[in-house]
Amino acid sequence: MIKNKNPYIVSMAIFMLSIGIYSCRKEMPNIPEMKPEAQWAKSYFNDVLLPKAGNQVSYRVANKLSSIKERERKPNQKTPLWTRASLGKTALYEFVEVPLSYNRKIVTLFGPKDMKIDPEIIKASFNRLIIFKDKKGKIDQRIVSFIPDKDYLQRHNGDISHNKIDHLDSDFNGFLVYKTWDDVTVSRLRIINGKAISLKKSSKSSPSLKLNKSASTDRTVSERPGYEGEPGCADWYEFDYEIFCYFLGDDPIPYYCSDPVITFQTWLYTVCPDDPEEVDCEDPVNFTNPECEHEGCNDCDTGTEQEDDGCTTSKTAAATKANAMTAGNTSFANAVSSVLNSSTNNIEAAFRVDDNAGTITASTPIEEAELEASTSTNSNTIAIGHDHPEGGFPQPSPFDFYQAGLLAIQSNGKLATDYTFSPSASYAIVINNTTLMNQFLINYPMSSTLAKDQNGDYTGDFKKGKGTLGNQFQDWGQEAYDVDPRRNGTPTERVAAEIAANEYATTKLMSLAMGGATLLKRDSNGNWKALHYTKQTINGVTSYTVTPCN
């Protein structure tokens, strides 16, 4: 990393150099112009891509979609440099490859969790926009990130910018990462000697996913004795960094870069030294669909696939139960008003609901004591309720779900409802069947699934790690968030996308109880309605929705 102890000198040097460069450029008789053959790609970008997705960078979300606090982040714009566009053609496509300029450079790196950041790799990495068209005129696009290994970078004096998607150096070692224009990662390629030797998408259903043995040895140091009995294996992680970099003229190597700031981190897969070699279907020389699902097939009708937990009779019964408990109940309304007041003051408060010979009353909320409200229940208690402080997710937490299940089982199904209130939305967990809920707790034990703090108390969230329910939960939400168009909007819209993604993940979590639990949401009229999720894929486009049952 190039640094100067006096930032004023750096700023003035850049300013004076830019004046000199600008002055020289004014004397140049020929200013570079975009190649006319690239006009179709620029027209597609301006007419189709830009109006739909804009040019604002969308940040990936980690830590259970906790990037709500990132709403204050200043927008980062990406802009194609059309005057530097190049043309290419393969057996399947003609394409235009365009360098991308960012307000703040975005770099993706891979390696062990404790990997040291190499500033030279960050400086040399770059992104290009590829707009490609098949023989029938169908146009699509990808952002491709070129990320070198250290050994290859040193052999080329820190500059890899001469590489193109259809012409990599024969000794190129590193990675290519494919994303859509709205920054959804669709593919990662390991490149050795200019060839893609392994493409394995981060399959959420295969926690034992491994990378090819030809990965650089300096990135495969085992973090533990082995994985599934295989010595020498190591966990690999994916990191996103954001960096301020300054460039002089068209020089592809930054003059100066600030310290990188991490914006995303997740476990990706496991590297083992003895994995068999694979030939990947997406060699850059034969640039094809980066998802590699329909090789050589540009017209394939992938049909429709749908996953839906449906609106069952047990869900309808759960909504009826909650409405009967709360409709027109003054004491319940007063308790809700009280906890919502606590919520706006960033305090979590809780209350219980008792049924005394047919008279349903809510207790006075206790601040900062959700657990106390549950332990202060009696033989007449049929529900508990609490708030989530403003600024967090309004949905019930994983701990709320487990707690609701345990209370229902301990009370033989009498205390079977847990209400959650926030200024933005209100939810309820209803345990429909204690036998099914108990089986869920056997399959996903609380002690090994939920996270604890240093004092041994549950934090409310899942434990993280490959193959865990916590990772599944995060993946569900991430998938829904990645395709939500609001993620490219205003800070308020991005927060709305995060909340909707968490709602999808929470609804899907409840479905693991196989009908033993239902998530309800209160509508604008004060009625509780059961939720069901839908994951639908039509012609390769997947959507994730949560809708109320009528």
UniProtKB/TrEMBL annotation:
Transmembrane segments: 6-24
Keyword Transmembrane helix set for record: yes
Entry keywords, A to Z: Membrane, Transmembrane, Transmembrane helix
Residue spans of biased composition, Low complexity class: 204-215
Region feature (Disordered): 204-228
Source taxon at top rank: Bacteria
Protein's name according to its UniProt entry: Uncharacterized protein
